[in-house]
Amino acid sequence: MPKLLLITTDEDLSVRLKKLLSAGDFFLHQVEHLDDPKHSADLVIFAPEKVTETEFKLFKTHPLLHTADWILLSDGSPNKWVDLMMSQGMAYHFRQLKDYSPLLDVIQDFANEFKRLKINRRSATQTSTLDQYGSLLGSSAVMHKLYRLIRRVSQTDANVFLIGESGCGKEVAARTIHEQSERANEPMVSVNCAALATDLVESELFGHEKGAFTGAVNQHIGFFEQGGKGTLLLDEITEMPLALQSKLLRVLESGEFRRVGSDVVKQSNVRIIAATNREPEAAIEAGFLREDLYFRLAHFPINIPPLRDRDNDVLELAKHFLAYRN
């Protein structure tokens, strides 16, 4: 069974949850505050008296943020710190919870998924063994959380926003999401926004008609049409000019676009996965990313862990790739 951690000062909630969960052989450990001595956990239930900037900052730096799934219980009042928590990795949010059944259902589903997620053991040599999910390799706790997140989002059509340093595997994660989804038999188109010429970005994304501009000697099918009913990865989305981000936002809102030089409206049915090596908040503040576009894209934000946070994966990956090369 997964390890559960409850963070709250509400003793009534603690007693009730422990009683309800004991019937399912769950063990629930409790601490009162986010900065209390840390404990290992696979699922964290955070029920503060009120979500403030202090709680948000502690949440952002909590050592379990990237290894455990999180559930927030709040009073339901409008709160920008709650919204920021949801955009930074909080998996579930229950407002004004009176009936505990929905919470218990999520916990049970998590436990079932925790047991059901069968990681294929892949052995490069007799001394190198790595867990694998799709095209992703790694046995560390942060990778197992990533596998759970990808499995969950793959079962939906939600837009995904991948955040991680250059070289951490964002494109591999995007491909795994696509391959595990119902769109797996449809195309996956990857676009490096940083490599697109500024004056051709719109044409590359949406296509153009012959004669639409100087040099347009043939009709061009853009990435949105190439993606069809599949997946479109917009890598390094923060490198896209803001004017084009505005047009992209309108396409996401309406589901419609036009090729450059055409009045014919086309429907978009492609799933968007965006990726960046910048922190979204910093990118928005610095003018690299429209805030409204971010919230439209980040239905399901996922942080991809850097290699330095992956415990023993570094040595095992080195063994794996050495064996693969030989």
UniProtKB/TrEMBL annotation:
One of its GO terms (biological process) is regulation of DNA-templated transcription. It holds the Pfam family Sigma54_activat. Residues 136-326 form the Sigma-54 factor interaction domain. InterPro entries: AAA+_ATPase, P-loop_NTPase, Sigma_54_int. Keywords: ATP-binding, DNA-binding, Nucleotide-binding. SUPFAM superfamilies: P-loop containing nucleoside triphosphate hydrolases. CDD domains: AAA. One of its GO terms (molecular function) is DNA binding. This is Sigma-54-dependent Fis family transcriptional regulator. It comes from Methylophaga aminisulfidivorans.
